[in-house]
Amino acid sequence: MVLGTGLMFLLWPELHVSDGCLSDTIATASLVGAQLEAVYTNCDSIPKDESVRVYISAVAERGKNGKRGNGEIISDYDPGGNHKAPIIKDHGDHKIYISIGDVGSVFLQRRKWHDISIDYRIGQILYPTASQADR
Q: Of the residues 54, 58, 84, 135, which has the fewest C-beta atoms closer than 10 A?
């Protein structure tokens, strides 16, 4: 088992382990003066936690502390088995567009960061909250 774990880290060097959680940057983008980073995190604990969080920061702040997930969280969702990276695009005139396939749950969607508007396109939400189900 230890050999298999070590082999995994040799084959997947971008994978980071912290507090029993595995994290990997699955998408990055520099758009409209901001740096965006989508980080997939999987914690095998009780309860199990699997999420994709999209962080945003001013370009000058990028990598300040050497950790993944610098900046503020603008999107947080349970991928629900969908391990495809979100598509992050410049939509012109201080707008960012984030496209995500089907997901388990959505916990956070910020629509504005400083002077940047954020639009989302999400496939099906498998376990929507009451307010999301009414839409």
A: 135
